[in-house]
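Lecture 7, part B: from sequences to assemblies.

Below are the input chains for today's worked example.
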Amino acid sequence: MADTRHVAFTVNGRPVEATVETRVHLADFLRHELLLTGTHVGCEHGVCGACTVLVDGASTRACLMLAVQADGRHVETIESVAAADGAAHPIQAALSRHHGLQCGYCTPGVVMTLVELDRERAGRALTEAEIRAALSGNLCRCTGYQGMVDAALELFGASADQSSV
Amino acid sequence: MKAAPFVYHAPDTLAAVLDLMARLDNARPLAGGQSLMPMMNFRVATPDHLIDLGRVAGLAGIEVVGDRLRVGAMTTQRMLEKSALVREACPLLAEAIDHVGHQQTRNRGTLGGSLCHLDPGAELPVAAMALGAELIVVSARGTRVLAFADFPMGYLTTALEADEILTRVDLPIAGPREGWAFIEFNRRPADFAIVSVAVRLSLDDDGQVENISITVGGVRPTPLKLAEVEGLLTGQMPDAAIIARAAAVIAGLDCEGDDLYPPDYRRDLCETLTRRALTRAVERAKGRGHG
Ligand code: FES
Ligand code: FES
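Predicted structure of the full complex, as structure tokens:
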């Protein structure tokens, strides 16, 4: 019989309780059980970053973490980023303005990485090198990254208004 | 691309971990999961029991005790990266950590996990070897202290017994006339290293090499200490001529490789990177020595 566990954690601020098969990774749990399909699955071995979510605020490969390991933690996914009325978050708007996405497959992971980066910088201006280092963990087959970097520089660079977005 | 079934355990004390490790067959401890989880998803690793160390208190943390930096095995790579204490006390480790993975994997990946996984392209085992790290290894049978040099047994294989786990890594604190360098070559930043080199050295009052430790990764299944090169440099003025002689020794090194990066290519990289790492370490030793 499959090994299962009862877990309780929050996803985007809402409490979640479920009995999960222990071998199910967090990305599959979010997508298949909670139907939060914004978190994408590209490689399932930690290379592409499409599955990036925040766990207790830290960017995490959801394919390399078991759903059972989320017990007691706070998970944030791309579904939490836009405003309740659907208005794009400033990071999403900037990505759109700078053509920082094309097919959009990598974009949920990119956005979550930039959300973490924005919180961690705590108002400090970032260099292009710092932005590129953060984004190096998100593979994109379409854009060539320049649009993403431009978007992040507009928001977090030296000439940006230095409040967190 | 899904892990095969296993029984999951999440003990919250070290004693409970050790009890499970002693009792269960084909059990694997799970640290940050950044290597084991991909292997399980690929079904290269198929443990019957997975023992999650994530709920055990006291396995993560960084502190100075005497002349050692003590790092808990479950300390994440991100904690190391952000630690001012690590940058000050053990700059070689800090320089190595800057090459390890991406922020999304460093957030969960741990020092202990990387050392125990022992990937030939991983940076931390190379740094640990160059630093002469000491490993605190425990089981229900007791505790033993292993020199890192005695830890690698072969490809992805360590000296850990089936019932043992690594709990702590002790590293020497850098002295005033110490120089260090960690350099690697890869195709993209944050990839595994094709070849990496870690150097730690100290100079005496006359500017001669007093102690030196050089380890390379990527030329053998496990990190390789370049004892001959260390011997050549010890007691010498570390000038360009002797560094060139050191590089020449490496030209005769027996290297292993693969189709993508054959032995000759890796040997060339090793020679070049060692020359650069030695040069950088010597410059730093002189810089630190002068205040
Ligand atoms: S799906 Fe998780 S990193 Fe690619
Ligand atoms: S927009 Fe298509 S993969 Fe990035």
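Note for the exam: Residues A 41-44, 46-51, 61, 63 surround FE2/S2 (inorganic) cluster (ligand 1) (CB under 6 Å). Keep this in mind when comparing with the next example.
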